[in-house]
Amino acid sequence: MDFELSEEQKLLKASARGFMDKEIIPLVNDWERKYRPLPKDVAINIMKKIAPLGYTGGMVPVEWGGGGMNFVSYGVLIEELSRAWGSLSIMVVVHHGGALDLSRSGTEEQKKRYLPLLVSGNVIASGAITEPNAGSSNREMETTIVCDGDYYIVNGTKTWITNGGVSDFCAVVGYTDKSKGAKGISRIIVDGTESPFEARELPKLGFRSCPTAELTFSDCRVPKRNLIGQEGAGYEATMVAFLFPRAMIGISSAGLAQAAIEDAAKYALERRQFGKPIAKFQLVQQMLAEMVVETEAIRLLAYKACHLLDKGEVCFKECSGIKFFGSETAVRVCSTAMEVLGAYGISEEYPLERYFRDARTLLPPDGTNQIQRLIVGREVFGMPAFV
């Protein structure tokens, strides 16, 4: 086993960290207070700014303008972005996930039309799966995608859609034939420039600068050419597509926890009590030690999942495992870091309270952590505890 990054990946990490330290971190606290969420023009400008580093299309094949990165290399980028700004990291993961999925599942026409825009950051992608009455049980979704000549008519409401309020490109999942159950679920690109839909922003605890919306599609006419893959192939494709964001939530958890460690360690070296830095106190060192080990555990599990994805494995167990372990452990690490700062840990003058809110907000997306545990159990026993 090799736990070392390649020289290329080390350079990638150093470049990303340097950019974040210089260009992003000094502005984050002000942006988080000012933009709840980021308006579309600001979001596009930021996406275009980080596009050259590979964030918006790093894993997209080179022939489509991307960087041709593997999962581990892209994870390196996401860890550094999450350490800098959780809100932007979540936006980027969802955006890039859409670009990656399209590069693998889209038609040549769809790739030519959308990938250059997505890779450059000139448009922002979103994926619309969750509904008010269909969260963990996606098969109970009510959105319909009905054929009508050269168009599909989309009707339904999607909720908690990351990037929903600022995206033009939205991959919508719904029923083309509900009588077939999961085999009747399909996916389609709803391009807001030609097929308008409504968006209502949903305020939330963490990732406050990251747009999260409820989307409403009312007799939304979408050209037939926008269907992704074949009719009825949407459910299985969606379940496999979930592997990427679940692995990246693990990586994001490591980034958030690392930021908390660095801030807590810095404070412990500067803060003096009883005539010495509190970093000399045994219990403070115990807290830091536990935070470091727990964060390293997140990192190792997350990169293992990425390694398996790079090998082409459909690793539900590892991706679901790191999703729940990473997010829950990051909450604990950030909470402990807040204790190191005492009362300042809950002050908005310090970013630790933001890290804590962001880490806690990682628990529900892309399948609740309870569902992730059941997926791991299914993979272990070979039988599901849910249908």
Strand order of the largest sheet: 1-4-5-8
For the termini, the CA-CA separation is 36 Å
Specify the CATH homologous superfamily of the largest domain.
Answer: Butyryl-CoA Dehydrogenase, subunit A, domain 3
Please count the helical segments: 11
Radius of gyration: 21 Å
Helix content: 40-55%
Percent range for β-strand residues:
5-15%
User: How many separate domains?
Assistant: 3
* Oligomeric composition of the shown chains: single chain
* CATH level 1 name of the largest domain: Mainly Alpha
Structural class call reads alpha+beta
The CATH topology of the largest domain corresponds to Butyryl-CoA Dehydrogenase, subunit A, domain 3
Q: Low-confidence spans: pLDDT under 50, at least 5 residues? A: none
- Mean residue pLDDT: 96
Overall shape: it is globular
Give the tags:
Butyryl-Coa Dehydrogenase, subunit A, domain 1; 11 helices; globular; four-stranded antiparallel beta sheet; 15% strand; Butyryl-CoA Dehydrogenase, subunit A, domain 2; alpha+beta; 10 strands
